[in-house]
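Take the subject:
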Amino acid sequence: MIKHVFVFEPAMNPIEADRYYFRFHSKEVVRSVGPWLRRYETFRSLEFPPDAVRFGAVRGRLTELWYNNVDEWQEARPYERPYTAPPGGWESFFGTRLAVTMVPAMPTDDFLGKEPLPEERPILRWYQVLRYPEGVTPEDGEAWYLKTHAQEVKQQPGLLRFISHRNVPNVPFRTPWHRVSELWYEDFAAWREGIKSAERCTQPPWGGQYPFVKMVSAFVGYKPEVDFLRDNPVIP
């Protein structure tokens, strides 16, 4: 099973963006490709502290569309369907801080090997879409991320879960992104402590400052705001 992932911050008024999304776009997506969809969920990003801006944090949405496999995504042809354009055009809706990719539904890497129960404590999910800097091959980037970086990051105090998904092979659309990762904390205080620890991570061969990669990220809760296959959301 695979996930078609969108992390974005609308350039338009957020209430107007939600009105368009709930009233038109989500319903048209379900009507067009619903028979192929296993899940269609959207998470509203949480308000984050100013120091998260350098990690490409968006004040927008994380949306995941789940399909059985890439072949069914291609059969559904989601990019070829007619959709009502948003006010101001697609760039106004998706904005310029946008990451779109496709990953396996299950993590390809689970660095802590445990999943906390959301009933036991609050869950803050830091959802990251990553790409290695220009000039760094995916092979070199992956070797550093898996063998060095992840091994150090998983030592963060307060880190509850650390999972990652490498892009599906031969993503069927153009995308510069290589990987999707999630780091779970109890709250932003725990996140800040984790970042302090991460600042001391080993620098990769290409240099730079933490996080050493290009990133668009979102802070979301454990459960989606809307499940478009089951819910009837209130239109703002």
